[in-house]
Amino acid sequence: MTETESTGRRHTRDDVARTALRILDDHGLPDLTMRRLAAALDVQPSALYWHFPNKQTLLAALADRIVSHGRPVATATASTATAPTDWMHAVRSEAAALRDALLAYRDGAEVVSSTFALGLGSTAAVDRLASAVALGGFDDHTSGRAATALLHFILGHVSHEQQRMQYDSFGVVADGVTASSIDEDDPAAAFRFGVDLLVGGLEFSRSRR
Amino acid sequence: MTETESTGRRHTRDDVARTALRILDDHGLPDLTMRRLAAALDVQPSALYWHFPNKQTLLAALADRIVSHGRPVATATASTATAPTDWMHAVRSEAAALRDALLAYRDGAEVVSSTFALGLGSTAAVDRLASAVALGGFDDHTSGRAATALLHFILGHVSHEQQRMQYDSFGVVADGVTASSIDEDDPAAAFRFGVDLLVGGLEFSRSRR
DNA sequence: ACCTGAACACCGTTCAAGT
DNA sequence: ACCTGAACACCGTTCAAGT
Questions:
Q1: Mean pLDDT of chain B
Q2: pLDDT at residue A84 greater than cutoff 90
Q3: Residue B23 CA to nucleotide D11 C1', Å?
Q4: CA B189 to chain centre
Q5: A165 CB-near residues (< 8 Å, 6+ apart)
Q6: Are B175 and A175 within 8 A, CB to CB?
Q7: Would you say the pTM of this structure is higher than 0.85?
Q8: Is residue A58 within 8 Å of residue A47, measured between CB atoms?
Q9: How far apart are CA A150 and CA A164, in angstroms?
Q10: Where are the alpha helices (DSSP H) in chain B?
Q11: Chain C positions under 7 Å from a protein CB?
């Protein structure tokens, strides 16, 4: 019932990250403070700085866990032979998997977004998207740029989506206008639309040369 | 030389926003605190809450100013007759103008991004993008979704770009690897690439039906 | 209409010292 | 190897009261 994890006393870096992830998921990013995390671990705030140099690094570790949520452990099997024409499907499902991973934790997109902007970790997401695009025969430069464009859209979209979720749960609905503007409804469809736009743009650029 | 604006004593809501914008541009978002803003205005922190109910609202006001930077005052002239096939050009230049506006202030993209995610203001940007897309003959629903997709990409890209600027100015270059990964070079080109992907995707979706 | 003074309830981070 | 205790230098926000 309480939030403390008093199992054993001394903690590992992994304990800290896991507890932080639980606070994030239960109470949201604004409530994930070093002091609150320390309290949940039954420890002084200063103790956390033995495990992580600062909060930013902690958040980067959380971002890595969020992004690799529900992912195979990447065994070194030969590259799974995807049908060469099915790169569009690959990109779409890679994007959908990433969205699912972000949605699996409260404020997940914002956490990943902030650490991505700062260039810390989270390269896994771009790499997977870039690989999927590369299946279409695009060069590395193009695949990389397309992947970051995809990631920017995904992070922006899911952040927006998650922000709206908690705005709804305890929201100012009493404002008359239901405020459901153009595509606030069916976020999954709006997500697919955006991904398809980028995927279609790649196909279009190919047909143009 | 100092940051105080001791001109007259009593301030207006506009003074507050303008001074905040200057602190943002000179020192960045982390340094834009209510206390620092108050000091710059030669006033107690509590005085700010007469002009704005909270910091979030202040930031939304700043976002509005940033987004409409370098913009005509929207005179009610008849819709400028753009060549019907030139909607792509319209979208591209609308996107470029938005990027320029965001780049005109330090951390501009992050400020706009945060208020956009919260659904406060900044509808001007989406509206302009949607109008440009609509020139292509797409229905409102499609135009709206394309506009938000564009905005998500733009905000993510420029945030990243601006983060990298101050990371460079005082950065950890001594880390061996020059870290210039796939498209950290020439951000303007990477930006155009992303916009073209989305624009191309729209054209592709039209050819597909 | 616009601001002061004083407080409340917090933050992240450092650092000597303990076991 | 992992943590305590105590401090430093801050935050955003509220609210009675002043002019």
A1: 88
A2: no
A3: 17
A4: 18
A5: none
A6: no
A7: yes
A8: no
A9: 21
A10: 13-27, 34-40, 48-51, 55-67, 87-103, 108-117, 123-134, 140-169, 187-207
A11: 2-7, 10-16
